[in-house]
Amino acid sequence: MDGTTPLVEARGISKGFFGNPVLKAVDIALHPGRIHALLGENGAGKSTLINLLSGALQPDGGDIRVDGKPVTRLTPQGARAAGVAVVQQELSLAAELSIAENIGLGAAPRRFGLLDYRALRDRAAAASALVGLTEPLEMPVGDLPLGRRQMVEIAKALFREPRVLILDEPTSSLSAHEAGVLSGLVRTLAARGVAVLYISHRLNEVQALCDYVTVLKDGVVTADRSLADVSAEGLVRLMVGRDPGDMFPAFKPAAAGEHLIRVDGFSAGAVYDVAFSARAGEIVGIGGLIGQGQEDFLLGLYGAIPAVASSAAICGVGHLLAGVGAATAAGLAYVPADRKKEGLVLPHTIAANLMLPSLGRLMRHGLRDRRGEAALVADLARQLAIRGDTGRPVQALSGGNQQKVALAKWLPLGPRVLLLNDPTRGVDVGTKREIYLMLRAFADAGKLILLLSSDTPELVHLCDRVAVFREGRVVATLAHGNASEEAIVGAAMGLATKELAA
Amino acid sequence: MTPSASPSGSLYFAIQRRRNRGLGGLYLVVAAFLVVYGVLFPGLLSVGGFSKFSQNWFPLALVTMAQALLMLNGGISLAIGPLVSLGGVVAAITMGGPAGAFGGLLAVVVAGLVIGALTGLIVAYMRLPAIIVTLAGSFIITGVALLLLPRPGGSIPDWLSQALAGQQPTAFALLVLVLCAWKLFLATPLGIGVYAVGDNPVGAFRSGVPVERVRVVSFAVSGLLAALAGLFVAAQTGSGDPVIGTSFTLNSIAGAVLGGVGFLGGKGTMRGAIAGSLLLSVMINVMFFLGFPPVAQYVAQGVIIVGAVAIPEFAGRWRKA
Question: Mind telling me how many Å the CA of A408 is from chain B's nearest CA?
C-alpha cells in the first residue's frame, strides 16, 4: 500500500480565517484502495481540510498534489476533473427534480445540447443500484425521507465515477440498514481502487470500516497511522488527549421518584397505541431505526402535534397536554434535533437565545429587566461551560456548543421533564461528554429525561431503560444491563426476543 | 440494472408524468371554469370566439411564465409590468419607422433580453435581492418608456395587428410554440439548473451547475417574454402606451401562485403556472359575464388567490394529521 502514489495528497497545508489559523502544516495522503478515516472534534479543521482537497478553498501555504504532481491552484472544476467527489453533510439536492436528474445534476450526459435522458437513466440506475436505492428514478427527491436522500447524494457522487470519494458524516441520517449498505459499498469501491476519505463521529463505525486514520486536533495532525491496532479508547485519546474511561459518567440507578409521565394507548403521528410511563430521576432512552415514530412520540407528549391516549397523566395533569404552551407550563421542555432550524435563532446573540424562553418571566413593570437578564445569562453560561463572549451570534459557535445553548435556554423555567431529540448528533466527543455529565446531573436533581438518540452507546451507558421503537410501537423496553448495543439494534431490526424488564 | 427503476419506459416521459402529480385539482378547477365560461358564452367554441379568448389569455400567460421562471430559480420580478409597457412602446415607435415590422421585432427582443440580462447580472454577481433590484428597475423602465413615448401613440402595422389579434387563433399557436421552446430549454443542463439553483444554490454550485449563469439566463429569458407580451398588447391596441402593462406585475405573480409556484424558489412547475394564468384569465372573463362590478371582481380575485394557496396547504396538513 505504501508503494503506491497517492491519488491526492496535501503537504504542509495551512489555512486560516480572519487571522485564526485553522490548519497548521497538515499532511494527508489518499492512496488508491485505502479507506482512510479522518477524525477530530468539531472545530478541529476537518471541514476546512475537505474544502481544500476538493478545491472549494485555497490553502494559505503548502501544496496539494494530484497523482504526485503539485497543482498550483486547485479549483472545484479541477478537483472534479481529477476525480474527487465529496458527499457533504449538507445535501446538494433539489426537491422538485427527480432522483435521476439530481444524480446527474451538473454532469449529465448530453446529446445536441440537451440532456440525454436515455443515457442518464442507464447510468443513474447503475449508481442507484450500487447504493441500494430502489425507488423509481423519476420520483422527485422531495418525496423521499431524509435517509433516502442521503443515499441519493451518495449515488450522485458515484455517478461521477470518482477516484477519490470523500464522505463527510455520511451515516448521520441513515438507518442501521442503510449504513450497512454503505459500508459494503465503501469496501467494494476500495477494492476497485478508489481512495476513500471517511469522516464520522461514530468510532465503532470507523473501526469496523477503515484501514488508516488521520486524527486532527486543533488544526494539527496528532496521528497518521494504520487503524489495525488502535482501540476506540485510543482514538478518543488522540482526539482529545483525555482518557475515555470517563466518556460516560458513572451509571447510577434512579431512585424511584413519582410518576411524571404515564400514558396508555398513546397515538400521535406515526406512533400507535403505546403504553409508557417514567418516573422522576430517570433517564429513559428512546431508540430504534430512524423514523420509526420516536420523534412523533416526543412531539406528541409535548403537545406539538395532535395526539390521543386512552389515559394519560403528565406532570400531574390528568390528560394529554393541549399545546406547547400548556406543556411548558406543566414543566416539559423539548430540545429539537435540528438545532439550526428549530432550536436556535442563529443570527441572534448567545445571550438573546439563552433568555428567549425566560423573557416573559423576567419582566418588571411590563418592561425588560436588563440586569436580571444579564445575571441569568452569566449564570447559564457558567453552568454549561459556554466559553467566551455571550454577545457573539450563536452561529459563531461550534455544533456542540450550539447544542448546549439550545439545551440551556430551558433551564431557567425549571422543567421537570426534558424531552431531548438526539442532542449529540454531529457533536464532537469533548462536548458530548459535557452533555452526558449535564444529563446525569439533571437526573440526579430529580428531573426526568427522555433521551431520543441515534447513538447506541449513549443509550447503553446513560439510560436507566431504553424503549426501542419499531413501526410506531415500542417493541422492547430494555433495562440498564440488559440494554447492550446488540440487544437494542436487534430489537430495532425486529429480531430480538422481547426482553421486557422494568 | 435495477429492475424497479424504470425498467424500459422512457425516463423523460416518466418524469413528465410525475410532474402532473398534485396538479390534478388545479386542472379540474380550470376545466370547471372553462365549462362555466363555455355555457355563459357559447361563442367560445367558434373560431372567432376562441381567438378572442386566447388573445386575452396570451399576454397573461407570457408574463406568468416570465414570473414563474424567476420564482422557480429563487427570484421574483416587480418589473414585469413596466417591461410589458416598454416592449409595447419600443414596438410602436420602431415598427412605423424605417426599421419596419421585423426591425421592430428585433428591437423588442433585444430590449427584453438586454434589460433582463442586466437585472440578472446585478442580482447574480452583486448578490442583491431580486425584489429590490427589480423594484428599482420598474421605476427606471417606466421612466424610459415615458421618455420614449410620453403619451400613448406610435403605431403597429395594421397587417401585424390583424395577424396577431384578428379572427384567427394565432395567439394560441404562438403560445404552443413558446411552450415547446420552454420544454427544450428545460431539457438543457441550464434549464434543469433553474430548479436546482432555486431550491439549493449551494448544492447546485457544488454539483457543478453554473449558478450565476443560470440566474442571468433566467432573467434574460424572463425579460424577453415580458417584452414580447408588450409587443402583443401593442398589436391588440394598434399603438403603444407607456403605462399599459402596470397590472401585469401583480397578475403575473397571481397566476404563478395560483399555479402552485412557491415563493422560496425551486417549488412548482411551469405547467402549473400556465394553468394558473388560464384560471385567472377565465375567472376574470366569467365574472365579467356574470356582471360583477369591478370592485367585486377585484375582491373575488383576491379571495380566490388566497384560497388557491391555502387549500393545498390545508389539504397537506389534513393528510398528515
Answer: 31
